[in-house]
Design goal:
Length: about 400
Amino acid sequence: MMRPNRWRWVAVASVVLALAAFGCDKGGGEGGQTGGKAEGGGDKPAAGAIKIGAVLPLSGQTATYGEESLAGIKLALEELKEQDGPKLELVFKDNKGDSTETAKLVSQLIKIDKVKAVLGSVASTNTLKGAKVAQEAGVPLMTPASTNVDITKKGEYVSRICFIDPVQGSVLAKLVLEDLKKKKAAIIVDKASDYSVGLAKAFRETFTKGGGEIVGEESFTAGEADFSALITKVTELSPDVLFVPAYYGDVGPMLKQAGDRWKEIPVVAGDGIDSPDLYKLMGSYTGDIYMSTHFAADDNDPKVQAFVKKYKGRYSKVPGAMAALGYDATMALHDSLKRAGSSDPAKLKDAINGISKLNGITGTITLNADRNAEKDVVILKVSPAGAKFFKRIPSGS
Ligand code: PHE
């Protein structure tokens, strides 16, 4: 088979010209750039590369999500450079964790940078905004990590390679009832976060159906520095477990401020606390914490261990879930481009939506009719010694 004929990659020359014309290389380094940066997986973009965009929080309260995803995306691009198939060139943008910014950047990537697909973003509230723009423009957007159920409802150009919050919430409720054997939960929710509200709802439904009682719910706003009133109220509810569907930037300081008061009450959260910065922010908090997530670096699956070794060799750090998801999303997009045989948006969208049994680091990825991945959920247990693999819950259970 003649490869050059098979890939009908269009507008190769104009991609390179557009790069020069729009000064995409002037984006600056990682962390805080707004202009974006073109990358061919390290050095110069490969000739004839397909441009893909990424909108990630590289600064702000969820910056570790962006940093880790970008590291995973770049690692995948470096590997893909050596492989057969289309060459990809990355243009990434920092949304600073903001939803209005996300919508603006997705539009910019599509209209100005002329990317053929967008990866991102991470926090669901932001991805919801970006997904609407991509859907309206008819350009595929694939989120590596956003779990809110409504995201893929934006339309058939929007997909994800992770599980959804109804799955995550129900798995966590069962963990509390069956493994921790707790029946009185207090929920602490970030009212302005679609992720937090959606995950709380999913947990509440399964937990109460399974015989659990919600003894009370308290809310806060992301970025709140002083949690003392909330901590007092929650403690007075006398729960035997706390469910905190929020991000590490809030949960870390909250636990630090709770100190010994929650020591005997296990804290249960979703993937939003899966960040290396959680441990820095929570200080010397000693209570048990359980979280659901997409990947565990100490999972003895050989595929996971091979990835951990590669990532460590490249970055001298242990990868978190976001890194593995960024890597998997890039591989999934590349695989889809290969199968589509073209970067035509409609064909690429169909190929993405047909992703089936893709062997990812975060599990086997198959998109269902709603363009959500049906995957295993990993539970980590956090103690002062760090996060450890606790169990894997197979998809559909
Ligand atoms: N699932 C979170 C959201 O939708 C984002 C996230 C994914 C955070 C994975 C950490 C790890 O908002």
